[in-house]
UniProtKB/TrEMBL annotation:
Gene Ontology annotations of biological process type: methylation
Organism (species): Penicillium cinerascens
UniProt xrefs under Pfam families: PCMT (PF01135)
This protein's name: Protein-L-isoaspartate O-methyltransferase
PANTHER family linked to this entry: PROTEIN-L-ISOASPARTATE O-METHYLTRANSFERASE, PROTEIN-L-ISOASPARTATE(D-ASPARTATE) O-METHYLTRANSFERASE
Molecular function GO labels: protein-L-isoaspartate (D-aspartate) O-methyltransferase activity
Keywords: Cytoplasm, Methyltransferase, S-adenosyl-L-methionine, Transferase
Length: 259
């Protein structure tokens, strides 16, 4: 989930400005127009990502302004992320989103990205292994994701067949019952790179996660503060490689609200 579009990208600054202005320019009046616009300005580059996004109507997930390239509130303090951020997440994970892959979507919120992932890993002809688990810690949002996905025939079928499952749980622990995963996506900012998520990765596998920079009060930490997407690769030999890729602004991965 993204709160400020302008902070989705790190330096150099021209790139921030370019992405910010293009994000608005990319909005469309239909789902197809939105996705085609994102592709035209190369906010999405991969044909498979484009096809998967064309296959999910955002109107089922973001009813107020479905084709705007901006985050939208979905209730319970959560938002559906901007389309270009969903695109980025898919692009970073695409090599691991092959037909038959297993995916964990933590902080699944509206369920939109869970559906896009499912389109990528359960393509016709794929093995029956392909599965996406969406986790959120707010039961009402888990129910909302199920309802949203049931608005389309393919979404209903994906849930009926068990290829997509939405679960209420604390995503900071991952979901060991479904591990190992070829790809893990985290849609809210973690305080740290939770080691358990790396443990639950397949080898090879990739984790895409926004992480808060630690603020120890020093000048250096205040200069480099904020949240960054980290991409963590577990290679086939089991070795782990971490890379900080760009700056973002997500809602935090937290304890569930007290009722
Ligand atoms: N990818 C979603 C983003 C939703 S916003 C979308 O685009 O629709 C982030 C989500 O993370 C919220 O739904 C929030 O409830 C969830 N979240 C926050 N902390 C969590 C935790 N500890 N475990 C699971 N989900 C969490």
């Amino acid at each position: 989930m993204i709160r400020r579009l302008s902070s989705n990208f790190s330096a150099p600054k021209w790139q921030t400005i370019r992405a910010f202005s293009m994000a608005w320019y990319c909005s469309g009046s239909t789902n197809t127009e939105l996705v085609e616009n994102l592709f035209k300005v190369e906010l999405i580059k991969n044909e498979r990502v484009k096809e998967a996004m064309l296959g999910v109507d955002r109107a089922h997930y973001a009813p107020s302004r479905p084709y705007s390239d901006s985050p939208q509130p979905i209730g319970h303090g959560a938002t559906i992320s901007a389309p270009h951020m969903h695109g980025h997440a898919c692009e970073y994970l695409i090599d691991h989103l092959h037909p038959g892959a297993r995916v964990l979507d933590i902080g699944s919120g509206s369920g939109y990205l869970t559906h896009v992932f499912a389109n990528l890993v359960t393509a016709p002809g794929a093995s029956d292994q392909g599965q996406v688990i969406g986790i959120d810690h707010i039961p009402e949002l888990v129910e909302l994701a199920r309802i949203n996905m049931n608005k389309s025939d393919d979404g209903r079928e994906l849930q009926k067949s068990g290829k997509v499952k939405f679960i209420t749980a604390d995503g900071r622990l991952g979901w060991k019952e479904g591990a190992p995963y070829d790809a893990i996506h985290v849609g809210a900012a973690a305080e740290k790179l939770h080691p358990v998520l790396i443990e639950q990765l397949q080898a090879p596998g990739r984790l895409f996660i926004p992480v808060e920079s630690t603020n120890d009060g020093s000048i250096m930490s205040s200069l480099s503060g904020g949240q960054y997407i980290w991409v963590v690769d577990k290679k086939a030999d089991g070795s782990v490689h971490k890379k900080k890729v760009f700056q973002v602004s997500y809602v935090p991965l937290t304890d569930p609200p007290r009722s």
